[in-house]
TrEMBL record:
Compartment(s) of residence: Membrane
Lineage of the organism: Eukaryota, Viridiplantae, Streptophyta, Embryophyta, Tracheophyta
InterPro entries in the record: Auxin_Efflux_Carrier, Mem_transp_PIN-like
Signal peptide: none
GO cellular component: endoplasmic reticulum; plasma membrane
Source organism of the structure: Macleaya cordata
GO BP annotations listed: auxin polar transport; auxin-activated signaling pathway
Name listed for the protein in its UniProt record: Auxin efflux carrier
Topology class, membrane: Multi-pass membrane protein
Alphabetical keyword list: Auxin signaling pathway, Membrane, Transmembrane, Transmembrane helix, Transport
UniProt keyword annotation of Transmembrane helix present: yes
Any one GO molecular function term: auxin efflux transmembrane transporter activity
Family: Belongs to the auxin efflux carrier (TC 2.A.69.1) family.
Amino acid sequence: MHVRRIKVYVGGQESGCNPTPGGFGSVKWWKIFNREQCDAINRFVCFFTLPFFTFEFAAHVDPFDWNYKFIGADAISKVIIVIVLAAWAKCSSKGSYCWSITSFSLATLTNSLVVGVPMFKAMYGEHGVNLVVQSSVVQGIVWLTILLFVLEFRKARSDGSSTITSVDSHMIKDLEGNEKTVAITTITRPSFLWHFEMPSIMEGSILIMSKAGIGSAMFSMGLFVALQEKILACGTSLTVFGMILRFIAGPAAMAIGSIAVGLHGDVLRVAIIQAALPQSITSFIYAKEYGLHADVLSTAVIFGLMVSLPVLIGYYIALGFLN
């Protein structure tokens, strides 16, 4: 499996560059952007740079070399989370469709490239990196696309559509406006199956845009945080709730899925630990774009990054005792 290009995406982090403070300062201290301009930047990131980012790293992996038991365990863990959240939304007075979407993001979507690649290279070598990249590709192409669809459905329903037909029409209209996101994701399939080689000028252009993906997303997150009155924008209780979903519920569901498909050894350890990686930055970008608990997701990303190292080391030590 090709992993030689990973440094392209996490290079900014390896060199110690973090665009989040730049975004924060641009609003809070230097007053460069107002709220409307911040919203425009977030939309640009959501529907332009992040799709190119997903396309670039997905186009250079070979699915024929994947560990499909590992992918299956990941899918089972997410189905478990969906079932639990659906039951919670239906049976609990505190449950809701909107909070189920946010809770799914918190429990399942990870920052696997920026944090996961260097962490797992130190822990498990290239084998660990390969598994994390596989998880990243599936997350980018499958789970984030499903999340985007669900958010579009919620947006269409919330805009006052009263029938299934009108909701469908609204969704089609919105998705046509975002057709590049879908097209860029879907076009990776020929490269998967037939090892399609793009012209160098096209690949170079895509590479330039993809390099801006995570950096611009972190910059946008800094803009959002600067617009809030406090760093923990969602409050203490929701911060704790998010951390429980991210670092306990997600790995627990992954452990169940891994046992169900028969994973063992280092593959089992990698599966559980990668489920405890910090929150996906893309999940925040989508939450901000669609106006759904962006304060909770931004806190999960920022606070999760701060506490993730001791949590991951703790999982690594504990799972080291497994035979």
